[in-house]
Design brief:
Elements: H1 5-20, H2 36-48, H3 52-65, H4 70-75, H5 88-108, H6 120-126, H7 128-137, H8 142-145, H9 149-159, H10 162-177, H11 182-191, H12 204-216
């Protein structure tokens, strides 16, 4: 039978985070140099959940030392490593290389400086609510669901908790703080799920600035409490 979520997270939760960082990326780590995917994981995790690095190192090393057999994989009792472009015979050594890089980073305190996200995984890890907003309300289906961009924004506001609205506002300001040029900004929002052009007459950066200002001024209607007079 499949492993329960709690047991899965205890054994493989952070391992899965690391492996997910390789989606669409090359698993070209060498003993001397981490791959771009692993650098993205290190950069984001050091600045958000530094305690998780030791868990990742331990889970990956334990998995590499005790790779699952076919029976346990078929029963769902082990984590099946997705296809990362490596022959199956090389997966075990690759995992040890990753674990060694994580260990070295922790022991030597090698903290990557903040930077523009370098992978799709890092964009979504750093801007989760922006990814939810752009991918959910501004996909290619947006023109069929809403008459215009403003209607899509109003629908998001009407159906989203105030705390998440505040999070989106903060993420928009953080994205703007990266000071991306127009083409880099277009790449960023495409990675985050946006599949339509900004509304006229805005440029993409202009629309994001307008959106941040509009959300910043939004106030949820909490109703009027009972009078204390």
């Amino acid at each position: 039978m499949s492993m329960k979520p709690l047991e899965f997270d205890r054994r493989y939760g952070e391992l899965d985070q690391v492996i997910s960082a390789y989606v669409g990326m090359s698993a070209d780590d060498s003993p001397d140099e981490p791959s771009g995917a692993l650098r993205a994981y290190l950069r984001h995790t050091w600045h958000t959940r530094p305690w998780a690095l030791a868990t990742a190192e331990q889970q990956i090393r334990d998995y590499a030392r005790n790779p699952p057999g076919r029976l346990r994989l078929s029963l769902g009792e082990f984590y099946p490593v997705p296809d990362v472009g490596l022959p199956e015979a090389e997966i075990q050594d690759w995992l040890f290389v990753i674990a060694d890089h994580l260990k070295r980073s922790i022991e030597e305190g090698v903290v990557p400086p903040p930077a523009v996200p370098g992978t799709r995984w890092e964009w979504h890890a750093r801007f989760p609510e922006l990814g939810q907003f752009l991918g959910g309300w501004f996909s290619q289906d947006m023109p069929d669901e809403f008459p215009d961009h403003d209607a899509a924004v109003r629908d998001y506001i009407a159906t989203t908790a105030p705390q998440l609205l505040a999070r989106l506002t903060g993420e928009l300001h953080e994205l703007r703080a990266l000071d991306l040029d127009e083409s880099a900004c277009a790449l960023a929002v495409a990675e985050l799920g946006m599949e339509v052009e900004p509304p006229r007459p805005y440029s993409l950066k202009g629309w994001l600035a307008h959106l941040a200002d509009a959300l910043n001024g939004f106030q949820a209607d909490y109703g009027t409490g009972p009078s204390t007079a």
